[in-house]
Amino acid sequence: MRRFSVLLGVCALLVGAAASANDDWRKSAPMDKKVDNLVQVMPGAANLMIEMGFRYQNLYWAAKQGKWEFAQYQAEEMEALLKTLMITRPKRAKTAEVFLKTGFAALEPVLKARDLPRFEAGFEKMRQACMTCHQQNEHAFVTLPLPKRAYSPVLNMD
After folding, report:
1. How far apart are CA 135 and CA 133, in angstroms?
2. Domain ranges of the chain
3. Distance (Å, whole) CA 124 – CA 145
4. What interhelical angle do 45-64 and 116-136 show, nearest 10?
């Protein structure tokens, strides 16, 4: 939630910087105008999914490397992103909630078990649930292969 608040604050500053010093909507506009402006700069699903992709890759490789705490952290951050999506894009809330309860829920027990074969099965279930969610949101063209690499330096230091 802190990340969301920071992003919201940065967006508000960028929008505010475009206004003249004498016409700062953040200070002078009525509350409904302030809310309208903030709603317009809320991150879209595409923005959140970029970070989700990084976390997806890092989750996979953290488990493959036996870095279970880092894998758990990635899963927690993915869940937080989905909860942010449910707030910022209410149209996507229902499918995100179904995803959290079905495909994503399979990860928690396998991450706690620290068992790679079980993780691989749980990850595959989650991956398929991701693509089902994409289809339900008219983005079937967004398919997810198994990650070939991780983006985090934590996972790329040999």
Report:
1. 5
2. 2-40, 45-155
3. 10
4. 160
Q: Which two tokens stand for residue 77?
A: 């951050």
Q: Would you mind telling me the total number of residues written for the chain in this entry?
A: 158
Place of tokens 């990650």: 147
10 Å CB burial of residue 46 (0-12, 13-18, 19+) is exposed
Among residues 52, 97, 100, which one has the least CA distance to residue 77? 52
pLDDT digits (tens, 9 = 90+) for 103-157: 889 899 999 999 999 999 999 999 999 999 999 989 999 999 999 988 888 887 6
For the domain bounded by 45-155, which CATH number is listed?
1.20.120.10
User: Which two structure tokens, joined as six digits, stand for 81?
Assistant: 């992103």
- pTM for the full predicted model: 0.76
Return the structure tokens found at 18: 């475009």
